[in-house]
Predict the 3D structure of the following.
Amino acid sequence: MTESREGDDGAGRGGRFVLHRFNGDEAYRLGEATVRVLRSYGSGSGSGSGSEGDGHEVTVWFEAQADPEGARRCADTAEAGMVPSAEVGVGMTEGEADIDRLVGRTFLVPGVPEGEDSASSLLYYFEHEPLRDNRITVVSRDGDRLRLRWTGECDDVNFYDGSKPPTRIGVEGVFLYRDSRD
């Protein structure tokens, strides 16, 4: 791999995005990566003030995009030049979504059973595939940046018929924290 770009102004520079496939690993640098807090103001019992324990529901989206520069792809997908991205949404209260309260937490998001579709945990490659068995750990914080470790799995990115073992994803790096309230 080439040098880390953690200090760049781009969101989430510094890290890696790996697809562990049946025929080898596809390895990418982590490109844009964001932890985004989105509010649904039509739901929840809180006033929307953001005070801890107000019961107001938010969704925290973990979003990662691979960087195509210097990518190492498997032989069956190399010519296509695809660049994976992933997203997982986790519902929680407003207070739980505070940046300081995320650090040290691990979120387990099972996703949907195999064969079903999902809108809250997806991997994008050729098509969107539901991500299952997501484990997202918020390791540390530096200002508005969070260091995360994220694993999950989906159907193979090139064989959607179940004839190949699942693709396991591994994302590790710096994610920019963005709150829709700011």
